[in-house]
C-alpha cells in the first residue's frame, strides 16, 4: 500500500485547512471529538503486549504516544481554563509563555541559540497564520523536540491509557460546555515557536497534534515485530 509523502500531505492538508476550517468553539470541539473517536478506533483491539511494544530504542510505544497526547491536551486545556478565569476577573485574557515554560525547540537549532533569538522569533511568528502552524504540526515535515511537560511516562498500561484518554476528552468538553466569558478569538496565548493563538487556534492545534500521532500509532501497529496478542 502506497503512503503519502509528508510534503504531499503537508500541501494537501494546508489546502483543506484554508477551505474547511471550523470557526466556532462548538465546531472545533466537534472536530476534536471526531478525531478522538478515530484514536479510540485505532487502539480498540490493541493488547497490553502490543501497547507496550517499542520498535526501536528511543521510540515510543502506543501507550506512550497516548500519554503524550493526554499530557499535551492537559497543557492546552489548562491554558484555556486560565484564559477563561482572566476574562471572568475582568482582566485581559492573554498569557505569554517563554521557552522556559514550554521548552519545544526547532530542529538543528541549539537551545542556547533559541534563547538568544526568543524575542525576534516570537515577533516573526505573529505573522504566520495559525492554519499554517497547525498544518506543520499535523504532518511530520519537521521534527521537533517534545516539551518536558509532555514527555510520556514509562510502564504504562493500555487499559489505564484508554481511561485517561476518555477522561481527558470529558474534561475538555465540560470546560467548553459552560458559557464562555467572552469572545474566544480575543483570548490568546503566545509562545516564541508556537506563535500567537486564540482559543479556536488552540483547539485546532490540539486536533492537528492528535492526528499527527495517529499516524505514529499506525506505524507502530504496522511493525512486523509487533506481538500478535
Give a written overview of the molecule.
This protein has helices at residues 6-19, 25-43, 48-51, 62-88, 111-116, 118-125, 130-138, 158-177, 199-221; strands spanning 94-96, 188-191, 195-198. It has 229 residues and is mostly helical. It has one domain (6-221): Four Helix Bundle (Hemerythrin (Met), subunit A), CATH 1.20.120. Helix 1 runs antiparallel to helix 7 (130-138), helix 4 (62-88) runs parallel beside helix 8 and helix 4 packs antiparallel against helix 9.
Task: Give a quick rundown of the structure.
This protein is mainly alpha-helical. It has nine helices and three strands, in the order H-H-H-H-E-H-H-H-H-E-E-H.
Element layout with pairings:
Layout: H1 6-19, H2 25-43, H3 48-51, H4 62-88, E1 94-96, H5 111-116, H6 118-125, H7 130-138, H8 158-177, E2 188-191, E3 195-198, H9 199-221
Parallel strand pairs: 1-2
Antiparallel strand pairs: 2-3
Strand content: under 5%
Show unreliable segments.
13-20
Question: Structural class of the secondary elements?
Answer: mainly alpha
Radius of gyration: 18 Å
> How many individual domains?
1
What's the CATH class, please?
Answer: Mainly Alpha
Helix content: 55-70%
Q: Specify the CATH homologous superfamily.
A: dinb family like domain
Instruction: Provide a count of the helices.
Output: 9
Q: Enumerate the strands of the largest sheet in spatial order, edge to edge or round the barrel.
A: 1-2-3
The main β sheet shows up as: 3 strands, mixed
Order of helices and strands: HHHHEHHHHEEH
For the record, the CATH architecture stands as: Up-down Bundle
Determine the N-to-C terminus distance.
24 Å
Amino acid at each position: 500500500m502506497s503512503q503519502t509523502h509528508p510534503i504531499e500531505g503537508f500541501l494537501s492538508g494546508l489546502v483543506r485547512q484554508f477551505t474547511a476550517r471550523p470557526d466556532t468553539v462548538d465546531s472545533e470541539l466537534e472536530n476534536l471529538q471526531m478525531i478522538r473517536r478515530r484514536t479510540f478506533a485505532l487502539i480498540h483491539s490493541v493488547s497490553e503486549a502490543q501497547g507496550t511494544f517499542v520498535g526501536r530504542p528511543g521510540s515510543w510505544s502506543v501507550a506512550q504516544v497516548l500519554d503524550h497526547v493526554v499530557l499535551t491536551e492537559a497543557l492546552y486545556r489548562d491554558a484555556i481554563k486560565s484564559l477563561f478565569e482572566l476574562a471572568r476577573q475582568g482582566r485581559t485574557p492573554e498569557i505569554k509563555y517563554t521557552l522556559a515554560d514550554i521548552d519545544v525547540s526547532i530542529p538543528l537549532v541549539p537551545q542556547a541559540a533559541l534563547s538568544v533569538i526568543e524575542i525576534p522569533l516570537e515577533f516573526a511568528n505573529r505573522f504566520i497564520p495559525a492554519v499554517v502552524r497547525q498544518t506543520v504540526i499535523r504532518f511530520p515535515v519537521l521534527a521537533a523536540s517534545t516539551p518536558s511537560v509532555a514527555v510520556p511516562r514509562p510502564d504504562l498500561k493500555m487499559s489505564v491509557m484508554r481511561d485517561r484518554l476518555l477522561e481527558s476528552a470529558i474534561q475538555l468538553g465540560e470546560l467548553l460546555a459552560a458559557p464562555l466569558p467572552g469572545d474566544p478569538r480575543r483570548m490568546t496565548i503566545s509562545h516564541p515557536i508556537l506563535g500567537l493563538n486564540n482559543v479556536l487556534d488552540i483547539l485546532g492545534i490540539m486536533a492537528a497534534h492528535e492526528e499527527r500521532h495517529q499516524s505514529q500509532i499506525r506505524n507502530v501497529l504496522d511493525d512486523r515485530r509487533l506481538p500478535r496478542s
